[in-house]
Amino acid sequence: MAFSPLLAVFLFAVAICASWAILRLVPRPLRPQAGADSRNDGRYAAIDGMRGLLAYAVFIHHGIITWQYLHTGLWTLPPSRLYTQLGQSSVALFFMVTAFLFWDKLLKAGPEMDWPGFVSSRIYRVYPVYAVAVLLVAVLALASTGFELRTSPLDLLRRLVGWATFKAPPINGLENTGQIVAYATWSLPYELLFYAALPALAVLVTPARRLRPALVSVAATLILLLYFRNFSLAVLECFLGGIAAAHAIRRPGLVRFARSGRGLAVALAGLSAAVTGFDTAYAPLPVLGLGLFFVAVAAGQSFRGALTCQPVLWLGEISYGVYLLHGIVIWTAITANAPVRSLVGEDAGLYALALAGTGILVVAVASLVHLAIERPAIMAGRRGRALRRNDRAERVPA
């Protein structure tokens, strides 16, 4: 059954309302500052807001796929181009965000780029929430198999190590274990590959050639290529959009145009063309359209403040948790919940309401994980890097 585009509008509205309500419970110092023109607390505010909407779009994408799975037993792309692109275009834009933020940092730092600090920041940023997701996946997989050991203990340990290293093998004989996270973890190896390759790519744009980080980078990149073995060039080209944007925002004339009404129209045209004109986001032409949209956002185009209002910025704050944990919430609240499945049955309207309620849970769970785990880990990483910088400064002779 094809769902109306109005369902997506409804679900986005529910998410923003849920975010607004949760913000009333968040201590004021931890709330994002709304209305920033280009940057918010040293970050690109429009990009932060966009990330929140992208993560929730992936939730909607997987919610529609889950409806199909409940009625066909197949986990496949939706027949609707819109609901397919809500997932694929969002992930493509996530890759552009990653490339932009770190290429921008590289252009600013030049040969002074702190590579150990970069690695440390990525560990503190990526792994704590991922570890929570892996723990929940393991528990839910064991629960789905009746907490009865169906493989050898050694095999179970090997599968858990696979999950801990960003693979998604079956756990305890549950072949569709990856579905517990809606298979969303497939994108993380691409992020890791970009992180690994960045010091080697830095020799292209920095005047000083730092040999040791470049050699370590090449080795790490080769190890990842051999370990995962299934990277797609069509997906990797999405990172080029973020790199191009990092150079584009250094042209004042282009930034002024991107923030103008005409820039807004061009950005929307690029996004619309990519989403409505192609069956996949992972091809040169849709990546070009998404890239035009992303350049405008990176330049500070907030779409009349839509990307920089406080509830949307909060969705951006919790976007990583929304992305990683939404599949777990869908699995728990719908897929593995027999009473809900029985209640919904063939009624698409009831399923839409169930999905809206699940979306509220996603925002609530991601907010809790952000406040309890993600944000403390990020702050701990910052303190550690500050201590190392101070230590190095003390060792430098006057």
Secondary-structure map:
Blueprint: H1 5-23, E1 39-40, E2 43-44, H2 45-72, H3 81-109, H4 115-144, H5 153-164, H6 188-201, H7 211-228, H8 233-236, H9 238-248, H10 252-259, H11 261-277, H12 284-298, H13 310-317, H14 319-335, H15 338-344, H16 348-395
Antiparallel strand pairs: 1-2
Helix pairs in contact: 1-2, 1-13, 1-16, 2-3, 2-13, 2-14, 3-6, 3-9, 3-12, 4-14, 4-16, 6-7, 9-12, 10-11, 11-12, 14-16
Give a structural overview.
It comes from Azospirillum palustre. Keywords: Acyltransferase, Membrane, Transferase, Transmembrane, Transmembrane helix. The protein has 16 helices and two strands. It has one domain. Helix 3 crosses helix 9, helix 4 runs antiparallel to helix 16 and helix 9 runs parallel beside helix 12. The protein has 398 residues and is mostly helical. The mean pLDDT is 94.
| Number of β-strand runs | 2
* Structural class determined from secondary elements: mainly alpha
Query: Unreliable stretches, pLDDT < 50, 5 or more residues?
Result: none
**Rg over CA atoms:** 21 Å
Alpha-carbon distance between the two ends: 72 Å
What does the main sheet amount to?
2 strands, antiparallel
Number of domains: 1
Placed side by side, the strands forming the largest sheet appear as 1-2
Which sequence of SSEs, written as H and E, runs from N to C?
A: HEEHHHHHHHHHHHHHHH
- Mean of pLDDT: 94
Quote the beta fraction. Answer: under 5%
**Rough shape?**
globular
Q: Give the helix level as a range of percent.
A: over 70%
Helix count from the secondary structure assignment: 16
Organism: Azospirillum palustre
Transmembrane segments: 6-23, 53-70, 82-103, 124-147, 180-204, 211-228, 281-300, 312-336, 348-373
Protein name: Acyltransferase
Keywords: Acyltransferase, Membrane, Transferase, Transmembrane, Transmembrane helix
